[in-house]
Amino acid sequence: MRGEAPSGPKMGNVTANNASQNCTIDHTIHQTLAPVVYVTVLVVGFPANCLSLYFGYLQVKARNELGVYLCNLTVADLFYICSLPFWLQYVLQHDNWSYSDLSCQVCGILLYENIYISVGFLCCISIDRYLAVAHPFRFHQFRTLKAAVGVSVAIWVKELLASIYFLLQKEVVEDANQHRVCFEHYPLAPWQRGINYYRFLVGFLFPLCLLLASYRGILRAVHRSHGTQKSRKDQIQRLVLSTVVIFLACFLPYHALLLVRSLWESNCDFAKGVFNAYHFSLLLTSFNCVADPVLYCFVSETTHRDLARLRGACLAFLTCSRTGAPREAYPLGVPEASVGKSEEPELLTKLHSTFQTTNSPAGEGSPTVRLA
C-alpha cells in the first residue's frame, strides 16, 4: 500500500492520531484483499520487471534514450515490489510492525515514492514519444542519453528530497491493543494535509496534464498521416489510449480520495466512511507495477523479436530435455532472421522510437510517413 502504509485486518483496530484522539475502524477489508493483491504483484510483477529491466538495459546499450526512462521506471517498481514482503507480514500480523521505527519510515517512503517516481517517468516517456512522432526533426537535444540521464537524476533527487519530510515525522505508534502501527493516521494529522495537497497538484495533476497533452498531440499526428492504413492507425490509438486508461485506473482513484480526505476528513466518522474505498484505491496503485512492463517494454518491435528468440530458446531447451535430441533454436522452422519480424508501419515504429532510432541530429529520423 502506498502513501500511507497498509492497514491491517483486525476488527476494531484503534489507530492513534495523537495521545488525545483514537479512531476505531474496522480493517476487515485487508484480511482477504490486501494479501491477495500483494502476492499477485510479487509473483507477476517481479519477474516481469526483471525482464523489463534487461530489455531496457539493451536499449541503453543501443543508445536509445527512452531505455533510460524505462530502466528508471522499472527500478522504481522493483523497489516497491521488494518492500511488499514487509507490508504483507504487517497485515498478516494484524497491523503490528515488528521492525524498527526507521524501517517503517523507509518502507513507507519506498511505497509512497514509487507512485510519484512512476508518474514522473511515465510523463517523460509520453513527452519523448510526442517529440518523436510530431516533431521528428526537431528538439534532438532533448532526445539524447545525456538529457535522459539528467532528467532522471532530477526526478529521483526531487522525490528523495520530498521524502525527508516523512523522516521527520513519527510514523510508528501503539494502538489500544499494543500493536505498533505504521503510517496510520485516522483522521488525518494536521501535518498531512499540506503534503497531500502538494502530492495531488504537483505529483499527480500537473504530470497528468502533460501526459494527456502529449498523447493528444500523438493522436493528432496519426490522424494527419494520410499514408497509414486505418487498421494501423487504430492500432496506434489503442496503444496510446490504453496507456492513458491504465494511468488513470491506477492513480486517479487514489488521488481523488486523497484530496477528499484532505479537504473534509476532520473526525473519525468521516474516516470510517471513506476507509474501505480509500484503501481499495491504494491497492489499485499496486497494479501499475504489473502494467508498466506490458506498456513500455513488451509492445516494442525490438522486444517482440527478443522475446521470440527467448521463447524459441526455452522451447528448444525444454524439447531437448524431454527427448535428449538436439533441436534448432527456432523449433517451428522459422529462420532466426524472420523471428519477430515486425509488420508495424513506419509511423508505429517511430512511435516506439526508443527502440528504433539513434540520438544524433542526422539519425533523428527520416520517416517514410511524413506527418504534416
From TrEMBL:
G-protein coupled receptors family 1 profile domain mapped to chain residues: 48-296
Membrane topology of this protein: Multi-pass membrane protein
CDD domains listed in its UniProt record: 7tmA_GPR68_OGR1
Organism taxonomic ancestry: Eukaryota, Metazoa, Chordata, Craniata, Vertebrata
Keywords associated with the record: Cell membrane, Disulfide bond, G-protein coupled receptor, Glycoprotein, Membrane, Receptor, Transducer, Transmembrane, Transmembrane helix
Keyword Magnesium: no
Pfam families: 7tm_1
Residue ranges that the Swiss-Prot or TrEMBL entry lists as coiled coil: none
Protein name as annotated: G protein-coupled receptor 68
Gene3D superfamilies: Rhodopsin 7-helix transmembrane proteins (1.20.1070.10)
Domain of life: Eukaryota
